[in-house]
Prior knowledge:
eight-stranded parallel β-barrel, alpha/beta, 14 strands, 39% helix
Amino acid sequence: MSTLLLAQATHRLLKLLPPEEAHSVGLRLLRYARPSRLGPPDSLALKTWLGELQPPIGLAAGFDKTGACVAELASLGFGYIVAGSVTLRPRSGNRKPRIVRRRGEALVNAMGLPNPGVEAFSTNLVGTAPSAGVPVVASIAGSNPEEILRCYERLRGVVSAVEVNLSSPSLEDAQRIWSEPEFKILVDWLDSSKWCPLALKIPPLAREDLRKLVLRAVEVWADNGMDCITAVNTLPVKEERLSTGFGGLSGRPLNPYMVETLKEVRRIVDGGCAINAVGGIFTGDDAIRAFRLGASTVQIYTALAYRGPLAARKIVTEMSRALARMGAHRLEEILP
Ligand SMILES: Cc1cc2nc3c(=O)[nH]c(=O)nc-3n(C[C@H](O)[C@H](O)[C@H](O)COP(=O)(O)O)c2cc1C
């Protein structure tokens, strides 16, 4: 059976399972039936904050929380993989159910950052990242600057870059984390021990009380010569089917929030820092729009749940068609 047919059949069966089970069965199957890596078209190659990516489409944080499957996931057609988020010590996360599907091609999750802790995560990546064939980025999280810095130090030399996640709905006390004195301490510490490109992952600019703090943090991040902003994480919403009663919304309904945040961030960093766009990117047209708004890479997560394991390859094909329609030969020709 061809890779495409096998992927379609598997995806149809996985959709019958609850989403968290579908995810873990899907990851296990991928270990046994890894598709052969296809060379994406040269027209989509782009110089980015992670070097040249082909294609500039990444797997967003949260899909491979242990760093054990980065090579298998890269074979799905990604130009880079973000593994994690990982914290200093292992976390079991929230009680199940902690992820549900929602109408409109969306998910709501309250995973609570389950992960094996930075020690085991980094041991996994020492074994897996070299065979991924694409840059592997570690997403790190913590509730204070010291925890984040210790994770960062532990990953030295293991990954190509690090994304600092201060935006998971399950991180307590977001107000304090984003407030200027504490954020500046984190940036100064990261700056003085910087060994790789660094991205900051921000929430959608939906909460009025956080908006100003996050935008100020983006300014401080860029002014300190950091490399990239990843916009956005999930949007906090109520969801009674989850054990917590609330969670983070991802997928199509997040896309307008991502677009608004991308425009604001671009205005603030004004070319001083790269931007990864993530949030409801499902199709080649969604990706092209994000690139035209100033993104230097895009990332996807929920599209895999709805379009199947070959979502990144489908987006590549659709982007190539969209470029041809626009009369462009290369992605870089249509960048702002
Ligand atoms: C089940 C699930 C778990 C996630 N875990 C993380 C995480 O650990 N760290 C993080 O930075 N983002 C996490 N995210 C957010 C995604 O990386 C991404 O920012 C968000 O889902 C929006 O993209 P999408 O609409 O393409 O899914 C998670 C998302 C989902 C659906």
